[in-house]
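hey can u check if this looks right to u? its 385 residues, i copy pasted from the old doc so theres a chance i mangled smth
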Amino acid sequence: MRREMILRDMGRSTNSAGSPWEVLRVFLALGLRSFGGPVAHIGYFRDEIVVRRRWLDEDGFADLVGLCQFLPGPASSQIGFAIGMLRAGYLGGVAAWCGFTLPSAAALVLFAGAMGAFAGPAGTALLHGLKLVAVAVVAQAVVGMARSLCPDRARASIALAAALIVLSGASSAAQIVAIGLGAMAGLLFCRGAAPRTTATALAFPVSPVAGTAALAGFFGLLVGVPVWRSLADGSGLAHFEAFYRAGALVFGGGHVVLPLLHDAFVSRGWVDDRAFLAGYGAAQAVPGPLFTFAAYLGFLVSPQHRLVGAALGLLGIFLPGILVLVGALPFWGRLRAGIAAQAAMRGVNAARWSACSPLRFTTRSGRRPSADRRISPSPSPGSYC
């Protein structure tokens, strides 16, 4: 009997069982086809990682998504990094990030280098058409996620209430409020929703010491880089500070980073508004995370070393999200095993689904932003949540 219990627990445990090369191949394929924004990315991840390859089960994946929604940074990239670490250690996390991120970054760098070719009506029509195609991709992903995240009346009610909050607020603050209230509602109403007697063991190779060091690095860079910049000259350091601060302070999805980047780069005169808006449109049209817009900006603001500037932009904007994720993982494993934490995660996932659902699709896809309009936190269809 004891031997059967041990074998069953081993079957429920998810351990590193692959190679970084395997992870790179899987996430490179995802990075080349993941159009449609973070919610579509999560749908792609679920189909590939949970349904097809079974690296994670539904409960583990849903809890991982819930964790990343609470953290600053790009949620889809954080989920990919965590899955890569789970499969092949730290190198697996790096491989997942490279495979998922670099195709989009490379496309935006190429766009920045050949921006003149897309300046006319034909280029605008092409980008607009790609964004319209992305709407269908997102809708399909949302429907698939609804079956697992909102399967009962309690979670469907939470999703509906969260959708009303998000639609009435139309800002990143409304999304955060909706997710927080979703957690509270989950604690109250989702404790009896198919409880898990044993949470799936996710064996992340992160010790509490390493997690604490990552959190120290996150806050140390957030405070230390501005101090360093005040003591030393150099445009590269100023650009890195702007990217890092934007990545560290973003909650609610990729589109919310745009006002921060606009304030940092357009308001200071580093990039003109027309070039910023052109890159924004291109970032919505290519697959992968919207945060790769930083590669485009880094390329433009570094005329002497453009590729170095693009790499610096990617490092600056993604590093804070990765550091805070690594810092949270060793402590989250214990927390998620509790019944209360499982109930809260059910509520979070239901609220997060509604925040990313087609109810939030706006009509802005039919309007071309003027060159003098300031970027607002309200998303457009290529960056839904």
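Residues 17-358 form one domain.
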